[in-house]
Design brief:
Elements (H helix, E strand, L loop, with lengths): L1 H32 L7 E3 L8 E4 L3 E5 L4 E5 L6 E8 L2 E9 L5 E5 L5 H4 L6 E3 L2 H16 L11 H8 L8 H21 L1 H15 L1
Antiparallel strand pairs: 1-2, 2-3, 3-4, 4-8, 5-6, 6-7
Helix pairs in contact: 1-3, 3-5, 4-5, 5-6
Length: 208
């Protein structure tokens, strides 16, 4: 029994490390999709990849640099002050909710001390359920990429951004990614047919 307890103690840091690595991969994918997909997420700091939130209706997830926090959505028609721990520092935002429970606006103004005392503080957690929920949202965003017209103006840049998500260990993500990449590769070939033909001729020339 003692040995089993020691095994669990040793396993816990390893599991947390793997979960933390997975979170960093998902954050990079989210940042790569920013402006290229139909996102239900909303940034809480415009100068940094984190924190950001996404509202599923019943729950609101808050992604920080090293964790995911969750609140039950009981804020329809209300204004709240949110407190998160971002990079080991307190982080505050005032959020206004519409009557249907969706996020209306996020204020980037400084929060007053009196408001901070009443802040909603979600419990940070980094578990399989929260990571899975974020992965599903990113897959949904990846599925929507071809519907965003602005991506067609720079197909090569879009491909480079999407490839960041290749590190996400999800069969659904990989399937969606391959579909999107194939679509934009066709656009690249249409825009630069000469470049592709020259490249192909060089390859064939080298094999003769």
């Amino acid at each position: 029994m003692k040995n089993f307890f020691i095994f669990l103690v040793c396993l816990l840091p390893s599991s947390l490390a793997l979960a933390s690595q997975e979170l960093q991969t998902l954050i990079r994918c989210h940042e790569a999709l920013d402006g290229k997909a139909d996102a239900r997420t909303m940034k809480l700091d415009l100068s940094s990849p984190t924190p950001f939130l996404w509202n599923t209706g019943k729950k609101i997830y808050f992604v920080t640099a090293d964790s995911i926090a969750v609140l039950e959505n009981k804020f329809a028609g209300k204004d709240i002050v949110l407190r998160l721990d971002e990079k080991h520092q307190p982080f505050y935002r005032k959020i206004s909710f519409l009557k249907d429970g969706s996020v209306g606006t996020v204020s980037f103004e400084d929060v007053k001390s009196a408001q901070k005392e009443k802040a909603e503080t979600p419990h940070a957690q980094l578990d399989e359920a929260s990571l899975s929920a974020l992965t599903k949202e990113l897959v949904r965003q990846m599925d929507s990429v071809t519907g965003e017209y602005q991506n067609k103006y720079d197909p090569q840049g879009t491909i480079e951004s999407l490839n960041v998500c290749r590190a996400v260990k999800s069969p659904a993500m990989q399937k969606s990614l391959e579909k999107q990449i194939a679509f934009y590769e066709k656009l690249v070939k249409k825009k630069n047919p000469g470049a592709y033909s020259n490249s192909n001729s060089k390859k064939s020339g080298g094999t003769q």
